[in-house]
Design goal:
The chain is globular. It has helices at residues 2-7, 11-36, 42-60, 64-85, 90-111, 117-124, 132-151, 153-161, 163-168, 173-195, 201-214, 218-243, 247-270. With 271 residues, the protein is an all-alpha fold.
């Protein structure tokens, strides 16, 4: 208990909780339509694009977040267009983008700053990576993502299950697919500082998959995914502090544990 109370006396821990809870919630809510639309690995692809942008920003001495946000948003829109108009499938387009951006980031880093501690924190996450300016930007953008998601919830629901029917009823499918891509890009960039490029996609995938094992309705899955994501992040961050383990990896393992328990519970309840 003394260690837990001591934990909240550190400003960087408080910043991590604030940003982590908001980003986890955004990622979980967006993860449900992404998983159902079979775009679950887009988080992995966009995180690698963000790493490439961050590597270039660091090499040029620019602020990382303001550079990476527009680059990742453009990459998300390009992936959307490729999957809609190209014979390449969504998984192939994401794989090509992911590998290319990661290779570019590693190459730029090796030719300039080298694999320093800063680069390692972008790859695997670090709660020490965020300063007050990053927190302010992250909170503002996370709140914007949540507000837009809630405002267009019903439209996102309609394009998730049947785009053809949604278009026939007057829903602008292209517009809302674009909105989903942009919101995902923002969430990935904001969460990458803490979770790292290698692990941020877990915040998109695990809560949605876990909730789908326990709930059947779209709304139930969305609500449960949001709750699970926030709880798992808080447990992961607390465990990381108590055990002196990396935050990103600890959060992922907590999410994995929740998913395995949900699978077991679902199988038992069916019997």
């Amino acid at each position: 208990m003394a260690l837990l109370l001591e934990m909240f006396t550190y400003p960087f821990i408080l910043r991590a909780f604030i940003v982590g809870i908001l980003v986890s919630l955004c990622a979980a809510l967006l993860g449900v339509p992404l998983v159902l639309k079979r775009y679950s690995m887009i988080g992995d692809g966009l995180s690698h694009v963000s790493f490439g942008a961050l590597a270039i920003a660091m090499a040029c001495g620019w602020a990382p977040l303001p550079v990476s946000i527009p680059v990742v948003v453009v990459a998300a829109l390009c992936l959307l267009r490729i999957t809609e108009r190209s014979p390449l499938g969504a998984d192939a387009a994401i794989a090509v983008t992911s590998a290319s951006a990661l290779a570019l980031g590693i190459l730029v880093t090796s030719l300039t700053t080298g694999m320093t501690t800063d680069v390692d924190s972008y790859m695997f996450g670090s709660i020490l990576a965020m300063d007050r300016a990053d927190v302010a930007l992250s909170v503002g953008l996370s709140v914007s993502v949540l507000v837009l998601y809630l405002l267009f919830y019903h439209r996102l629901f309609s394009i998730t299950f049947d785009e053809s029917f949604a278009q026939a009823t007057g829903v602008k499918v292209g517009l809302y697919n674009t909105l989903l891509s942009v919101l995902t890009a923002l969430t990935i960039v904001l969460g990458m500082r803490m979770m790292g490029a290698m692990l941020i996609s877990s915040l998109v995938i695990f809560p949605a998959l876990t909730a789908m094992r326990l709930k059947k309705s779209f709304r139930g899955v969305v609500l449960l995914a949001g709750v699970l994501s926030v709880v798992c992040f808080c447990l992961g961050l607390t465990g990381s502090y108590l055990l002196s383990t990396p935050v990103g990896a600890t959060v992922v393992l907590v999410n994995l544990t929740a998913f395995l328990f949900a699978c077991i519970f679902s199988r038992i309840s069916r019997r």
